[in-house]
Amino acid sequence: MGFLIYLGGIKLFFLFKSIGFTILFILKSSYYTLLLMYKIFILLFKIIRFLFINKFLRVPTILFILGLLFHLNFSILSTMYFIYLVHNVALYKGIYNNIYNNIKRFVNEIKINANIKDILKALPTSNVVLNNISLENDERSLNIYHLAITPNGLYNIIPLSYFLDTNYSKEAANSLIYDIYNETENIKNLLDDIIEEDVPLTTLILSPESDIENTINIDTFKLIEENQLPFIINSSENVNTPLDIDTVKELIIENKAWFLDKVWIRFTYFIGNNRKILSFFMLCPIIYCIYMIILTIFYSAITMIISDFFRFLTEIFNSKL
Questions:
Q1: Three-state SS at 263
Q2: Is a pLDDT exceeding 90 seen at residue 286?
Q3: Which 3-state string (H, E, C) describes 102-151?
């Protein structure tokens, strides 16, 4: 009887021992499984972190995820990535900054024009003011921003702010004043040809700041502030033979540039000042076509190689079966 109890105790011991080893094995297996899963998770996290931190891989990763989630085809994803590349090049080349400056300059011109028109309302009603006129004759065509016709002569009013950047230097302003002075001679000759007599023309440069100096010491070329404009025109010396304002106005209006010529003048001015922007956007479609051709060839080659590789593995697997 005692032997049977002893034998039963031994069997029970080995049973509990085997259960303990089984539980220990399960715990160890679970531990190593969890450890492996943790390491895989850390590795995936590092890979994802690397993909999103790297500026060259961030957007392709996002596009790849979007393609999987929304089932986007290759051409759409390629186009989206091309737009991203164009955006980066535009940032690097300062295209956005140029566009912003052009828009800002355009809005600034509208404000300045409106302000000058309000200031010129202080002139006597007998005087005539023409704004943004394009004149032409057989030899040349020019644009005049503001022209005041008075009995004492003509006043060509040019806002210096039209041509200056926001952070301009005094050297740039002085250089610009010289360029404007050289252009006023052409305006003078054109008006003389139109009116058919030597008319007194004074150019008034409206300075945005009082500390800009006029180094050209000529009575018919003055650098003034905007609030001085009506006073300068009204205080001009009387001439012996006052101008016939109506006749001069009619002659000038008769020689206004034709509408298409005016459009052409504006167009050439726009082209000349925006070559960088226009070149960039004209090259984009050409580069896009080349980009898509190369990418399509590469994508087709990769998919063909992968397809042939899996077909080869399938054939080997089927032959062994």
A1: helix
A2: yes
A3: HHHHHHHHHHHHHHHHHHHCCCCCCCEEEEEEEEECCCCEEEEEEEEEEC
Residues 202, 156: contact at Cβ < 8 Å?
Answer: yes
- Indicate if the pLDDT at residue 294 is higher than 80: yes
C-alpha neighbours within 13 Å on the C-beta side of residue 1? 0
User: Which range among 21-30, 77-86, 126-135, 168-177 has the greatest average pLDDT?
Assistant: 77-86
Integer angstrom CA distances of residue 19 from 11, 28, 165: 12, 14, 86
pTM over 0.90: no
Closest C-alpha to 229, from 145, 121, 127: 121
Q: What are phi and psi of 129, to 5 degrees?
A: -120, 125
Strand partners, 146: 131, 157
Query: For the CA atoms of 81, 82, 84, 86, what is the dihedral angle to 10 degrees?
Result: 170
What was the pLDDT predicted at 67?
83
Question: In the structure, what pLDDT confidence band is assigned to residue 285 with cuts at 50, 70 and 90?
Answer: very high
| Euclidean distance between CA atoms 286 and 263, whole angstroms | 28
DSSP state of 210: T
